[in-house]
# Entry
Amino acid sequence: MNGRLPAGSRLMIASHNPGKVEEISALLAPFRIVTVSAASLGLPEPEETGDSFEANAALKARAAAEAGQMPALADDSGLVVPALGGAPGIYSARWAGPSKDFGSAMARVRRELGDQAPSASFVAVLGLAWPNGATELFRGEVEGTLTWPPRGNRGFGYDPMFIPLGHTRSFGEFDPAEKHRISHRARAFAKLVEAHFRAGRRA
# Structure
């Protein structure tokens, strides 16, 4: 094992998605971890060839850790709709196409869903990898329902069409600090914190 990451450690966020980088950096801020994104270092995005969120998170984290020679944290996440057989799932970003048009992706979900049950969940898996190849995975999920038309202009991806259980607003209407407390990524992050940051957290 590579032990905990003490305050002041450098950690690469292995993503080229500005929304994800911003959200993960905000979650790490209380632990005084110095973050740098893979995009800012000019590192290429590896092809996501895994067949699960876990496989893709591990793949991205290992590639970044090896290329940057520092610990790397990768996220693989997506919207899972049971009525669509779990789609878009690990292909959530691909449904948005090369231009990352999530408006079109949300419209596709709505079109394919039709009159079927709008229950859905967001899944996030965080992969923490070290230059020596060691990797740990942390999974978080949040259940909810889908709404149409999309609501709110905050968040990113499918957030404007997802209403978490127990709430009446979409993630696209949540203040970022609110979302950070209950999101799928926050739940995965809580497991990461317990494993690596708890002892170093500021009082």
User: Anything to note?
Assistant: Residues 199-203 have pLDDT under 50 and may be disordered. The chain is about 30% helix and 20% strand.
